[in-house]
Structures are given as structure tokens and as C-alpha cells.
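Quick one - inputs below.
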Amino acid sequence: MARNGLDINMIISRGAQLVNEVGLENITLKMIAEDLGVKTPSLYNHITGLEELKMQLMLYGWKQMEQRIMQSVIGVSGYDAIRAGCYAFYEYAIENPGLFNVMLWYNKFQNEETMEATSGLFSVLFKITSSLNISEENCNHIIRTLRGFLEGFSLLVNNESFGNPISIAESFELSINIIIEGIKTLEEIQGGIE
Amino acid sequence: MARNGLDINMIISRGAQLVNEVGLENITLKMIAEDLGVKTPSLYNHITGLEELKMQLMLYGWKQMEQRIMQSVIGVSGYDAIRAGCYAFYEYAIENPGLFNVMLWYNKFQNEETMEATSGLFSVLFKITSSLNISEENCNHIIRTLRGFLEGFSLLVNNESFGNPISIAESFELSINIIIEGIKTLEEIQGGIE
DNA sequence: TTACAAAAACTAATCGTATTAGTTATAATA
DNA sequence: TATTATAACTAATACGATTAGTTTTTGTAA
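Output:
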């Protein structure tokens, strides 16, 4: 029926590589098109524009991260699973700095597809936290605590915003310890009340 | 000697208002110039370009936030001061969503002026944490924990990334409780060792 | 009071990328 | 082999950032 040169998956996966190489602020359609050996307008046969591509990259990143987190928690449970999931998140984020920026910035548009991409991730987190002796509502709060810390800390690392020369790895480890210990006290308090 | 129409402070303060209104992704020099009643090239007599303006806005935001945090901890100490400082950070961030995005994205360029702007903020945090029974190194780690959580959580709130309908205010309160309780266990452990 | 000079503001022009309009080429299918 | 859907192309447009060069203003000093 027509030429079978590009397809949207090629554009997205190549875009993901390029955005990690040059950063979110420098990625252009022109660059992606040249990389794929076509002229810029040809991309418009597969995407509606730069904004949609960034949305697609955001979804691509979250789906990949979900896979990594799911793999990381196989065979572990409870607080060990929380720890493993946090490390998987952090490692994916710092391995993919450009893509992670896209994931953060384009997470704002709330539509069905966005929900679908991130809901899988949250259901993993929810299953982990639900195995603890904590109310469902507090599980949801805790997921927000973890999301907040993980997104913020990863962003700070990627931006090289920590001026102090002390170890970033130790900061991350201690932070996770702090949060887990904090959650444990919550569990005890709630256990006492019930 | 010359006309005294604009100065850089007018551009920055007006830019800060506008970026909160239209968002980081939509702010343009053209918009700021029109708002100030001049043509776009006139801005170049005061700034080197859009990038420098964003850097200046980033510094402006961090300095303002530092003031807010310092005021918030007057008269309180220990964990109450940590709590007050965290709330001051969060409230400033959600009151200034566009500017806060600038603060996050342009925090990457590490020069003397950047350091100066954020070092004041960190010295406040360091004074607070130093009053606890925690080693200096761990104080620095804890500051990173707090920065990570506060930046990430605020970003999630500003982007409306929390799909779940449960209260964001309660999530923040519980998160701070978790982190403070986590820090307390750290303090006890270290106290026991010493 | 008036001429000067520094600096700000202006107009005109350039550049780069996104996007759109309209044309050409390809490949599956009838 | 002819058709046709569709992808890729060329050409053109739009818009903002930036630069070059000109004009205007205003404090200072003759």
C-alpha cells in the first residue's frame, strides 16, 4: 500500500536514545529526522508534532521503568521489596537522564494513556506496601512519599545539584533507611491502635 | 548618562510573575518585553539572552525561598524547625509553580553565583539539623533526603501528577512524619553507638 | 546654557526550528 | 499490470531568539 520506511516505534526508540545523549532542552525533530535518514516533515506522517513525541517518550520511559521495578522485586517481599524497587527506580533514572526529564515534565497531561502507563507502576508499589500492616489509605500516602523522594533525588543527581563532595550513594542509602524506618514506626502505631 | 527606563530587576520580577502565570514552557522574551512596554531587542541591553534570564529567575526564586524558610524557623528548634522549614519550602513551591520549575531546571549550572544563592538555604537547613544528636556527615545526607523529597513532591503537586483523589495535604503531613520518625531512629542508633 | 558621550531603545535583518501545503514516489493488492 | 493508499519529498510559512546598525535620551562638563 505504501512505503514501509519509518514507523512510530523507530522514532520513539531512537528519540529516547538521542534525548539521553543531548538532553531534553536540546532535542529537536530535525535531529531525530537526520538520525533516521529522512527529512523533518516526514516525521509528521507518524506523529502530530514535537509535543506528541515527547508525550510518547514519557510513556515509553514509564513503561520501561515499570518493567525494571517489577523485575527488581521478584522473590523479595516487605521492606526488602520497597528497598529493591526504590533502587530500581533510581538506577533507571540516572541511566536515562534525558528520558527521565521527559518523564517528569510531561507527566502533567492527564489522559487515559498517561494513566495506563503509570497505573501499572503504582499497582506494583501498591502490592508491595499492601503486604505491610498499614491501612490502604496510608499505603497510598506512602507511595506518594516514595514517588516524591525518588523523583526529586534522581533529578538532583542528574542535574549535579549536590555541591557537597560527600557520597551520593551513601545519601541515597541513608535516605531509603530513613523512609523505611519512618514507615515502620507508622506500622507500629497503627498496629497499636487497631 | 542614558535613558533610565528598564533595569534588570524590573525584568526579573516581571518575568517571575509571568512565568508563574503562563508556565516555564510558554515564557518568551517577546511576552516579557510587551508586558514591560518595550521591543524584544531592548531587553538585550540588560541580559545576554533567554538563558541568562532563566538563570536569574532561578537565583531570584531560591533567594526568596531562603527568606521564607528562615522566617518560618524563627522561634522553633529541633524537629519542629525541620517541620516548619519543610512546610515553608512546600508552600513557596506551590504558590510559585512556574518559578519553581525554573528553580529545578536551571539549578544544573554550577557557578559561584548559583552556589551563593543556594548556600544560604543550606546553611539554614544545616543549622537546624546540627542541633540534633547527629554527625555532621549524616546531617548532610539528611539535607539531601529532605531536598529530594521536597523538590519531587512539590513538582508532582504542581504537575497534578497525583491521580488518586486522597488528600494531598495529608500525604505531605504523613510524609514529613515518616521522614522525621526515620531521622529520630537514626539519632537513637547513633546515640547508642557513641 | 549648551555640547558631548554613554547607554538605552529602536528598526531592520538574520537564523533556526516547527509546522503546513502540495507533489512525487513506492509497494501491496486487485 | 494498473490502481491506490500512504510515505517521503520539496517548497513555503510562521514565530521567536538573536544580531547589526541607527536613533534617542539624559547626566555631565565645558
